[in-house]
Amino acid sequence: LYYRALQFYMDEQPLQLGSLLHTVAQKVDHARVVQQVRKSGHLALVLPYLKAVQQHNIVAVNEAINELYVEAEQYEELRQSIEDFDNIDQIGLAQKLEK
């Protein structure tokens, strides 16, 4: 039910995704949320949610945040994220940074 609601918000009210995710954060699988939001192309809209759940050190969340930092060229934030949350694909990140 939560994931259907998430899909509805992505289709109808993408700017309200953050509010929805904040409300249901304790009840959803964060990796699944990242996958669903990434498919819809709204990853940047949920950055505050991603930062809030990054404390769980989940690979999908860490990589999504790092991807957004690379795209926005926020290298200081990227460095801090990597230092604080080490559960990432380091080789994949290095390859992205080379490009």
Radius of gyration: 13 Å
Percent of residues in beta strands? under 5%
Give the proportion of residues in helices.
55-70%
* Overall spatial form: globular
Which structural class do the helices and strands define? mainly alpha
Q: How is the main sheet built?
A: none
Number of strands: 0
What is the residue-mean pLDDT, rounded to a whole number? 88
What does this structure look like?
With 99 residues, the protein is an all-alpha fold. 70% of the residues lie in helices and 0% in strands. It is built from 7 helices and no strands. The protein is globular and about 40 Å long. The chain starts with a helix and ends with a helix. The model has no long low-confidence stretch (mean pLDDT 88).
What's the layout of helices and strands?
Blueprint: H1 2-12, H2 17-24, H3 30-40, H4 47-53, H5 59-71, H6 75-84, H7 90-98
Quick description:
70% of the residues lie in helices and 0% in strands. It has helices at 2-12, 17-24, 30-40, 47-53, 59-71, 75-84, 90-98.
